[in-house]
Amino acid sequence: MSEEANMPAPPQRDTRPIVPDAAGIAEAAALLRAGALVAFPTETVYGLGADATDGRAVAGIYAAKGRPSFNPLIAHVADLAAAEREGVFDADARRLAEAFWPGPLTIVVPKAAGCSVSDLACAGLDSVALRVPAHPIARELMQATGRPVAAPSANRSGRVSPTTAAHVWEDLNGRIDAVVEGWSTPVGVESTIVACLGGDPVLLRPGGVTRAEIERVLGRPLGTAADTPDRPLAPGLLLSHYAPKAQVRLDASHIMPGEAALLFGGAEPPGLDGAKARLDLSPKGDLAEAAANLFAFMRRLDLTGASAIAVVPIPEEGLGEAILDRLRRAAAPRP
Ligand code: TXA
Ligand code: MG
């Protein structure tokens, strides 16, 4: 939006839908290998993929998203063996990979000597972010492509992440080459990012695997980025992000007239009758269900034209940490 004002318009592309059968996966993989931009479903959110080894293809991602700066991207691979060709896994990193891959965990490790991921995808860092996605379509696509695929969320910069193919079409039609059409994304928030760069692993971004699950596997507490200013942050960590057009008001104890209400656990705060619209992330108070609904519900409430989305309190435990991280970014002051 305002960030995009500084970006040149990307070249117009003829975006085509791809059905995720065997022929469609082969077609999408061939497009990726030829340097095209292909959106595809993962278990977290839809990704906008490009051949991570091809700097020119990766540059296309930034142009299509209108990303103002070259943040490092996650390289998606088919399995741990492929990941170990790109990065150096210490004992902690290997333990996490074995416990959570395929799945919603990204591990940042030092680049391997033979790392094929382009400098642009790594933003010039000497570390690389790797993930083996669990979604069957993503897995088949990684296997068929046979090289790392860089993929941020398939939305325009600063917008809410896409959890359905329809969201991808809304944001990126005419800017990318293809959308692999799949069902919606079951986890609904992005992967958890953990850096294993020597010393204790550090949580860079809460996400689809909870802190408690990771600490159980490590047998000790994770560090946090804030505790270790000498370590690289996941850039953009505290910036306004994931933003709908409406303002976002957190910890709402009441709903003001004309606001849209984002509820949890069957909450009925005072003023709810005057709300422009209301959606409950999980009437039964299940945080996994709430995470899966979060981005789609923010898009739906935004479409009502409400001036603000009032969000009731949500417990910051388990997946609540990732949900509140995304909501705080949506509520942060905009540039
Ligand atoms: O669930 C997900 O992770 C989705 C799906 C598509 O896989 N992808 C995603 O990518 O959320 P993206 O680009 O929105 O987020 C990548 C994050 C950024 O915060 C980036 O700064 C961080 O990963 N990152 C990448 N490489 C890094 C590195 N070497 N060191 C520190 N942070 C890194
Ligand atoms: Mg994103």
Architecture overview:
This protein is an alpha/beta fold and 335 residues long. The chain has 2 domains: 4-82 and 109-187, DHBP synthase (Alpha-Beta Complex); 247-331, Rossmann fold. It has 9 helices and 15 strands. It has helices at 22-33, 55-65, 80-86, 91-100, 136-145, 165-172, 211-218, 287-302, 320-331, and strands at 16-18, 38-41, 46-51, 74-76, 105-110, 127-131, 149-150, 178-180, 192-195, 202-205, 223-224, 247-249, 260-263, 277-280, 308-311. Helix 1 (22-33) crosses helix 5 (136-145). The longest helix is centred in the last third of the chain and has 16 residues, at 287-302. Mean pLDDT is 92; it is low at 1-5 and 228-233. Threonylcarbamoyladenylate (TXA) is lined by residues 42, 44-45, 47, 71-74, 106, 108, 122, 125, 127-129, 131, 151-153, 190-191, 193, 204-205, 232, 234-236.
Features:
binds magnesium ion, alpha/beta, 28% helix, disordered N terminus, 2 domains, Rossmann fold, single chain, 335 residues, eleven-stranded mixed beta sheet, DHBP synthase
Summarize the structure.
This protein has 335 residues and is an alpha/beta fold. 28% of the residues lie in helices and 17% in strands.
Task: Give the arrangement of secondary structure elements.
Elements: E1 16-18, H1 22-33, E2 38-41, E3 46-51, H2 55-65, E4 74-76, H3 80-86, H4 91-100, E5 105-110, E6 127-131, H5 136-145, E7 149-150, H6 165-172, E8 178-180, E9 192-195, E10 202-205, H7 211-218, E11 223-224, E12 247-249, E13 260-263, E14 277-280, H8 287-302, E15 308-311, H9 320-331
Helix pairs in contact: 1-5
The structure holds threonylcarbamoyladenylate and magnesium ion.
The site of threonylcarbamoyladenylate has 28 residues, from β5, β6 and β10.
